[in-house]
Structure formats: structure tokens, C-alpha cells
Design goal:
The chain is mainly beta and 163 residues long. It has a single domain (2-152), classed as 7 Propeller (Methylamine Dehydrogenase, Chain H), CATH 2.130.10. The chain has strands at 2-6, 9-13, 21-26, 35-39, 42-46, 50-55, 63-69, 77-83, 86-91, 94-99, 107-113, 118-124, 127-132, 136-141, 149-152.
């Protein structure tokens, strides 16, 4: 199955025929879909202001099953990672954590303000790793309400002069 976000339209197609959409979902024209994540039959679609949960168990008939609107979000959404029933969302400098175990009851459970724009999120075990533009890499302990941080500054490498 192909999942293609094109501005404010999400197209779902078969991998064998990507040019023939099975279904299209339309989002608010002012908030394009920035990131997608999938776990099983649930697709997570992130815009700059909200997170949508979509049941794709029948790809020809996707069904929106949940939506969480981020209060006071500023900046563009650049990162999304779903792990152990938690959606970790990077919007501007803010890491927002949303409990997504129940699509009908999405709850924000934590947040963290990074020293720069969050561009990526990875996880291994209980540690989240944030890629932060000019700041480098930040590791967060996922079960301690995002309180433990280790700051590793970005390392600059001299450009080769070609001589």
C-alpha cells in the first residue's frame, strides 16, 4: 500500500498501481499534512496544528477515528514517532506527547522545549533521540516525563578546500 501526502490531500493506493488511488482524504487547505506514521491498521497524519488517527484496515474506505488539536502550537511540524501508545510530535521547538492508545480519548501527556527546531525523532528502548537543527542531538528518557536530558552540541567539520 502506498500512502502519499500531497499538501492537504492524502492518497492511498496499491503498491502495484500507485497512479490509481483507492481513496483520498482531504484535510484543511491551510494545514498541509507534514508527516505520516503507521502502526498496524492505524495511520497517523500530522499537520502543523493537529494529529489525525485514521483506520486503514480497509484501504479503499479509510475512516477517521481520532483527532487531537495542539493548543498553542507555533511553528511547522517536522517530526512524528509513535511508540508504545504514545505519539511524539515535533512542532517547532516543542516536543508534544499524546497518548494514542484510545482514539476516542486522545490526551496530551507531556511536553519538552528544545533549544532549536525539532527536525527528527528516533527511539530505542526507553530513550528518545531528537535531531534539533543547530543544537545537535538530545536524548530524553521516555518514562520520566521527559525530564532527563543529555545535550550533545552539533559538531562542525571544516570544509575540504580541494587543494
Amino acid at each position: 500500500m502506498n500512502l502519499i501526502a500531497a499538501e492537504h490531500i492524502l492518497r492511498i493506493s496499491r503498491a502495484s498501481a500507485p497512479e490509481e488511488p483507492l481513496a483520498e482524504l482531504v484535510f484543511d487547505a491551510n494545514t498541509p499534512v507534514r508527516k505520516l506514521a503507521r502502526q498496524g491498521d492505524v495511520l497517523y497524519a500530522l499537520t502543523d496544528i493537529d494529529l489525525h488517527l485514521i483506520d486503514i484496515s480497509n484501504p479503499a474506505h479509510p475512516r477517521r477515528i481520532g483527532r487531537y488539536v495542539f493548543p498553542h502550537s507555533e511553528g511547522e511540524a517536522h517530526a512524528l514517532k509513535v511508540v508504545h501508545g504514545q505519539a511524539y510530535v515535533g512542532i517547532g521547538r516543542e516536543l508534544r506527547v499524546v497518548d494514542v492508545r484510545r482514539a476516542d480519548r486522545l490526551v496530551e501527556t507531556g511536553s519538552y522545549t528544545a533549544p532549536g527546531t525539532i527536525l527528527g525523532i528516533a527511539s530505542q528502548g526507553r530513550v528518545l533521540t531528537l535531531a534539533v537543527d543547530d543544537a545537535g542531538v538530545i536524548n530524553l528518557e521516555d518514562r520520566q516525563a521527559l525530564l532527563t536530558t543529555i545535550y550533545l552540541p552539533r559538531i562542525g567539520f571544516p570544509m575540504a578546500s580541494g587543494k
